[in-house]
């Protein structure tokens, strides 16, 4: 799943470690989510949304192909 | 940029692959000498056990790498401590049991005890894994550990099935079933240490 985590993080000038500390997860987790290698669970996705003060849909984006199929 | 350079430099220091390779090569050499009969009696077991001391630098470098990759958590630290303690116990018990068993009366209660003892230490390692999966609050690290355990399991099942048929068809000699735990642990290690695409810790 695509996401805007890296951009949002850059806008706030947070390092991966800083975001990881705010989310209470490892930096490796932030890296895995950011690079699209791991999709977070709903609770973690809500936590990420809360940290950025945004809606989940404003952070995580549906794949274009998936959207087209609907 | 300084942080990034220092990060890369540190990463270059932790090389668990070297220790894992050395450990594997030794196991292969001892196994060949054992199977061909060049080593007899307790000698191969003592060599296998001595080879386990290589796990100390291997484990240390794996911890370093976990720290450097930002993959460390409180649950992982507890797991590392528990798993390492039980592997050390396994090593000591295995060495003691294989050195003592032929000095005891055949089939006696002591021999039963010596034979069961390494399995108890192995149970401790599995318990450490179970506790880790229960305690790990980081869902990504938990998922990684589960995948690594599956890699270990797959490794053991494929190797065991393959060897079983080779043995049935008289192509390879018989090997004892206690190899499953080290084989699983090697698979687990491969699963845990597989390289990560790390975008680096820059904003």
TrEMBL record, chain A:
InterPro entries: Cro/C1-type_HTH, Lambda_DNA-bd_dom_sf. CDD domains: HTH_XRE. The keyword Zinc does not apply. SUPFAM superfamilies: lambda repressor-like DNA-binding domains. It comes from the Bacteria. Residues 5-59 form the HTH cro/C1-type domain. Keywords: DNA-binding. Pfam families: HTH_3 (PF01381). Gene3D superfamilies: lambda repressor-like DNA-binding domains. One of its GO terms (molecular function) is DNA binding. This is Cro/Cl family transcriptional regulator. It comes from Aurantiacibacter marinus.
